[in-house]
Amino acid sequence: MTKVLFVCLGNICRSPTAEAVFRGLAEKEDMLEDLVIDSCGTSGYHIGESPDDRAAAVARRRGYDMSDLMGRQVNASDFETFDYILAMDRANLRDLRRQCPAAMQEKIALFLTYSKKYSEDEVPDPYYGGAQGFDRVFDMVEDASIGLLEAIKART
Ligand code: 4NP
User: Fold this and answer.
1) What does the angle CA 120 – CA 123 – CA 127 come to, to the nearest 5 degrees?
2) Confidence (pTM)
3) In Å, how far are 6, 52, 61, 129, 152 from 35, measured between CA atoms?
4) CB of residue 12 inside a 6 A radius of ligand 1
5) Which tens digit of pLDDT belongs to each residue from 26-70?
6) Which of 2, 22, 49, 56 could bridge 145 with an S-S bond, Cβ 3.0-4.6 Å?
7) Catalytic residue set
């Protein structure tokens, strides 16, 4: 079993998009039964909330369903549970590193480490921007998800 946790600030835009896209890709590859996939936020701003309508609309248009996801905040047990803890940006990475026990630090990385098409290392926060930002987030998340799935396949 490989356990993957996607992390952003609010857990309503980027990380739930990553959760939905990665789950969808894994399902197509018949890998779902070997994976645990989840997402959370470093903040508690949106605990219990559904994903942002703008993120959900892009995902729906591109063939992924985010409707049953709900915001939650990262907690101490996540560092024990998950094998891959993937931050969307450097602020998320810093916040995770601050909370994570030394023995588990190597589980944490920037998600775009797994992207092939993008040379950037951060998925930009789309929350205060326009609709275009959500399309770009989706494209980046989809590309990194493909790379991550390949990396996990190569390891198992
Ligand atoms: P996310 O986007 O981290 O991709 O879920 C954000 C959502 C909410 C806020 C910031 C970013 N906020 O400040 O409430």
Assistant:
1) 140
2) 0.98
3) 13, 25, 25, 33, 10
4) yes
5) 999 999 999 999 999 999 999 999 999 999 999 999 999 999 999
6) 22
7) 8, 14, 125
